[in-house]
UniProtKB/TrEMBL annotation:
InterPro entries from the UniProt entry: Acyl_CoA_acyltransferase, GNAT_dom
Name by which UniProt lists this protein: Acetyltransferase (GNAT) family protein
Domain N-acetyltransferase: 4-151
Keywords: Transferase
GO molecular function, one term: acyltransferase activity, transferring groups other than amino-acyl groups
Top-level taxonomy: Bacteria, Bacillati, Bacillota, Clostridia, Peptostreptococcales
Organism in which the protein naturally occurs: Alkaliphilus peptidifermentans DSM 18978
Nuclease found in the keyword field: no
Keyword Transferase among UniProt keywords: yes
Amino acid sequence: MDNIKYIEGGKELLDKVESLWKKLNSHHLKNSVHFKSRYINNDFQGRINKLESLEMKVVLVMDSKLGTIIGYCISTINDKMDGEIDSIYVEESYRSFKIGDKLIRDAINWLNENNVRTKKIAVAEGNEGVVEFYKRYGFYPRMMILEEADN
């Protein structure tokens, strides 16, 4: 699609992902069985505050015809040089255009260029369906972390 544009930057782009981040949070809320209150109480500014101390790359995906942000990817590196594809979202109507593929590949390339020790992606409980997508890029479950469920 000629109308799809990618905008790369850092922390200065974070505020542009808020509406899509809220959609992703709603998706997790809807699909979570045991941790709904985490998503009910999750707010964008709190999430951004947790990312502030990390090195990061933010990629926005824009439909230039509509002037709308339709996807994003946030990749981070902590002070121990552990890399993470921290958050990724593409509007459902654009998912057949390989936008997620480009976002993941670009994120992996950035992490590799920065010589990270490890690369990881955390998958929320209730969203296990995305694991097959991530396996295409060499990401596999290594361990399961169990937490006490919400009451």
